């Protein structure tokens, strides 16, 4: 596991010291396993109580969470509510509304050759699950998966990111007051604690983070054959063909600069046709000023980079093209001005890995076909965006591009639709959640088959296989 320790250590560089220890992990797991084994988490009443407790937590402690998110990421309180608390509340309320329906057994038709008999599917909890959250949305991306885990009747260990220390401490302090502490535990700590957790056997692991650490989580889970849901990232492209240019630019800038660009589904780069590039670039510059003012450093609505290490990485990408607007930075406050780059070489550093910051490269292409070829020559992105008023172009894009999600004329907001699964494909992840998909992720759809013994209608299937039996079996099958 030395590689795992190294990976988590690299990811946690410049973060806060660990406030948990590996020795604390086994007792926590023992407690949760006993709770789940007792059957306490199975009744619908318990599941409802936990989901209602989660809603109360988010409603009653909104100000405390907003303060923690401001400390960790410089988030505006309204942005914290819109992109973190409200989304989790919506997930929990959606689960409460549909819980009885989701947990219901469903009958399945039985072939004539097996009649009389009955068959049904029955959703079952997996057991004790591990949810490892990232630092960029440290409330939403820990508690939203928890909604599915609780709705499905599981016990859960939550591991918040140590790179968002104020939010991590807030979760550890508040969760036991609102949820069953014998079934839900928050484990804080640094890389050594993450490593200790991944050495243990869980019934499912849900990881949100980067591709490199995601690979190592998957390798660690393989030791116990533990199923894993990976919510990773990647370079989500935005292709621009035509439209209301002011609206297109605003939606691109909004999606890109939410949380200072530290969003996994943010448009990572723009591919625009050569004839449309000048007008789009002009409107992008206007949109930045419209949303965040002439000096975004003074805007209360613009966040900061999570730590100095990420700030240095991002500043190092500014030389990958010509700065159309932005480019200013301040190490002390971890500020990086919203930056649009043009004249970007596809082989430049900014195009090699997910940017995860407020830098938007704009590249030109001849047409939609060339844009799709560019996208498909690279790892599968988490999201792909197309801006056009052409229905034919939208259909072509849907059929020609592989991505975790396809989105037309809007960026990032698809996450707010509970009925849509959220997840990647290929290098951007495996598995999905949100709404019913969260419940399914943390459930086993167990088949149940029942047949009486008073009339043994299966005798024709037993050896010896005479000529008559052969004819009967062939006809039935």
Automatic annotation (TrEMBL):
One of its GO terms (cellular component) is cytoplasm. Residues 16-446 form the Aldehyde dehydrogenase domain. One of its GO terms (biological process) is aldehyde metabolic process. InterPro entries: Ald_DH/histidinol_DH, Ald_DH_C, Ald_DH_CS_CYS, Ald_DH_CS_GLU, Ald_DH_N, Aldehyde_DH_dom, Aldehyde_DH_NAD(P). Keywords: NAD, Oxidoreductase. GO terms for molecular function: aldehyde dehydrogenase (NAD+) activity. The active site is at residues 231, 264. Belongs to the aldehyde dehydrogenase family. PANTHER family: ALDEHYDE DEHYDROGENASE, ALDEHYDE DEHYDROGENASE TYPE III, ISOFORM Q. This is Aldehyde dehydrogenase. It comes from Arthrobacter zhangbolii.
């Amino acid at each position: 596991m030395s590689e795992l320790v190294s990976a988590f250590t690299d990811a946690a560089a410049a973060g806060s010291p660990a406030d948990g220890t590996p020795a604390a992990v086994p007792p926590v797991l023992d407690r949760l396993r006993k709770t789940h084994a007792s059957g306490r988490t199975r009744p619908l009443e318990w599941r409802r109580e936990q989901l209602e407790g989660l809603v109360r937590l988010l409603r009653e402690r909104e100000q405390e969470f907003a303060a923690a998110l401001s400390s960790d990421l410089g988030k505006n309180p309204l942005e914290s509510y819109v992109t973190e608390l409200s989304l989790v509340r919506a997930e929990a309320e959606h689960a409460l509304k549909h819980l009885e329906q989701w947990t219901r057994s469903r009958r399945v038709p039985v072939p004539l050759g097996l009649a009389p008999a009955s068959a049904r599917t029955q959703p079952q909890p997996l057991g004790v699950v591990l949810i490892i959250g990232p630092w960029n949305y440290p409330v939403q991306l820990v508690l939203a998966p928890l909604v599915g885990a609780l709705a499905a009747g599981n016990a859960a260990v939550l591991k918040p990111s140590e790179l968002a220390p104020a939010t991590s401490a807030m979760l550890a302090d508040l969760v036991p007051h609102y949820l069953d502490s014998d079934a839900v535990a928050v484990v804080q700590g640094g890389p050594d604690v993450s490593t200790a957790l991944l050495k243990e056997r869980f019934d499912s692991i849900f990881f949100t983070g980067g591709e490199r650490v995601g690979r190592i989580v998957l390798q660690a889970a393989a030791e116990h054959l533990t199923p894993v849901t990976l919510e990773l990232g990647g370079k989500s492209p935005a292709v621009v063909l035509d439209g209301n240019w002011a609206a297109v630019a605003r939606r691109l800038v909004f999606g890109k600069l939410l949380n200072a660009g530290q969003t996994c589904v943010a448009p990572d780069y723009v591919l625009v046709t050569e004839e449309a590039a000048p007008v789009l670039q002009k409107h992008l510059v206007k949109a930045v000023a419209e949303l965040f003012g002439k000096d975004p450093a003074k805007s209360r609505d613009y966040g900061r980079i999570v730590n100095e290490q990420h700030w240095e990485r991002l500043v190092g990408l500014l030389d990958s093209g010509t700065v159309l607007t932005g480019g200013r930075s301040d190490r002390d406050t971890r500020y990086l001005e919203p930056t649009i780059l043009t004249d970007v070489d596809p082989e430049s550093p900014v195009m090699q890995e997910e940017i995860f910051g407020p830098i938007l490269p704009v590249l030109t292409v001849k047409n939609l076909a060339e844009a799709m070829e560019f996208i498909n020559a690279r790892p599968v992105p988490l999201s792909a965006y197309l801006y056009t008023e052409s229905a034919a172009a939208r259909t072509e894009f849907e059929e020609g591009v592989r991505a975790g999600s396809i989105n037309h004329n809007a960026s990032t907001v698809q996450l707010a639709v509970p009925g849509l699964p959220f997840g990647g494909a290929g290098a951007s992840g495996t598995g999905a959640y949100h709404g019913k998909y969260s419940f399914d992720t943390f459930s086993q759809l167990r088949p149940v088959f029942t047949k009486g013994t008073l009339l043994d209608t299966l005798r024709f299937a037993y050896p010896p296989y005479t000529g008559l039996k052969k004819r009967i079996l062939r006809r039935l099958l």
